[in-house]
Amino acid sequence: MSEPNGKKILIAEDEESLRTVLSDALVAHGFQTILAKDGQDAVVQAKSAHPDLILLDVLMPRMDGRAALKAFRADPSSRNTPIIFLTNLSELDTISDALDADVSGYIVKSDWSIEDIVKKVRDQLGMA
Fold this sequence. Notes:
- This protein is of the alpha/beta class.
- The chain has a single domain (8-122), classed as Response regulator (Rossmann fold).
- The chain is 42% helix and 19% strand.
- The protein contains five helices and five strands.
- It has helices spanning 16-28, 39-49, 65-74, 92-100, 114-124; strands spanning 8-12, 32-36, 53-57, 83-87, 105-108.
- A five-stranded parallel β-sheet has the order 2-1-3-4-5, sandwiched between helices.
- Helix 2 (39-49) packs parallel to helix 3.
- It is globular.
């Protein structure tokens, strides 16, 4: 267990088991987590919680990650918040679109480890 670092991470992921694994890992590394089951929930949560970083699944019900990203970037309180896309899609077009859409990075779900995610979060927050 790491000491709390005061940084809040919003995890927007519709798969409950993955949401839990990510949250547990980040909490173990000293982060606070806010959980959202879809993009719409994530946008609402971000308005009140003001996360330091958002992990955002691309494919979710009600509001997908691309629509949520537009909502975050349109809101002054989350306009500059680092956002990392979580995706099952490894197609170059999707990744290229994500990077063009002002995300800080992406993680292909089939190709990651907890250490990779924690490192990417720490890097984005300048905590490397």
